[in-house]
Amino acid sequence: MLAQTTTAHQPWVIPVAAMGIVAMASILAGPGFGLLPFYTAGPALAAARGTSRTVLGVGAFSAALCLISALIDSHFGNTRMLVALGGIAFVTAAACYVSRVRRQAERDLVDVREVAEAVQDVLVPPLPAQVGPLTLADSYLSATKSARVGGDLCQAVPCEDGLRVMIADVQGKGIEALRTAAVVLHTFREAARGPLGLREIAPRIEEALESLTDGERFVTGVIAEARHDGSVDLLNYGHPAPLIRRADGRLEVAEPSEHALPLGLAGLCGLDPAGPTAARVVLAPDERILFYTDGLSEARDEQGEFYPVQDRAGGPLAHPGPVRALQELRADVDRHTGGGSDDDSALLLLQFERVS
Prior knowledge:
By secondary structure, this protein is of the alpha+beta class. The protein has helices at 2-9, 13-29, 41-46, 52-72, 79-123, 174-192, 201-212, 266-269, 294-297, 309-312, 314-317, 322-337; strands at 130-131, 134-141, 152-159, 162-170, 219-227, 231-237, 243-245, 251-253, 279-282, 287-292, 345-352. The protein is 45% helix and 19% strand. The radius of gyration is 30 Å and the shape is elongated. 37% of the residues are buried.
């Protein structure tokens, strides 16, 4: 660990080590091999992590080693030495330019990441951890490295008697899927915190999808309202049904009372955008319900087998801490797939706590 830290913070270490190897090889090989041009490796390597000043310092050190080696090998002042020095000077100048360009690109990347993180914080504000007796934990994995938002999304908004929750999966990938996810998230937050009934939220999302996106994407999702008495109303729009873990360890699938089309398709088919009537489940104290996207249920192992949610999720979800339960579930999925995933995956665990 100490060696790694030294290398990371001292960009001259690797270039100097490389030139030391060249010097040692030159001594061992003797004057007939002509290794003087290999000293150009020093400034070339310095450009990878160092500043222009570092590159110049390494270049000067490289030239000094070249002169010493030429003196030892009796090449001092001849054409071989002059060509090697010219090469060092040229590579050092080119490496300074590369270093300056690299550092500017790094500064630009930092700026872009800061903007991206700010945008992601606006799109996906932190979920409330506790609302009365309702505890929430969430976990999101994006197929895009370092991203915290993608085609899958989850959100929770406190309401008068509890929480309104949405988990959804936007059809497709890329920037258009991200734009659609942003529209759905914003519309849900605005509709869920107001006086609208639960079945009135979906029509608002349908309208937003039609007016604010390309109109060619649909969204599967579950919209739920969890109350302080442990009752949970669920509306399912073509999405994987949530999984309930009862206090005795049994797992139940919260099947929808009616099957409905994904959001964005009802208008095209001339159907009522409010969709199905709500299915109600009641949680007893210490019982929990897992909302998830198909990034979980369709995670494949090396043989192409899907992750068996009902067969394997019971163990991880038995952990008393909701956050740790989701961590254990992620770890179990990694064991199934062998690690890594090429799909977005969102998990949201809602637990009804025992009221003292």
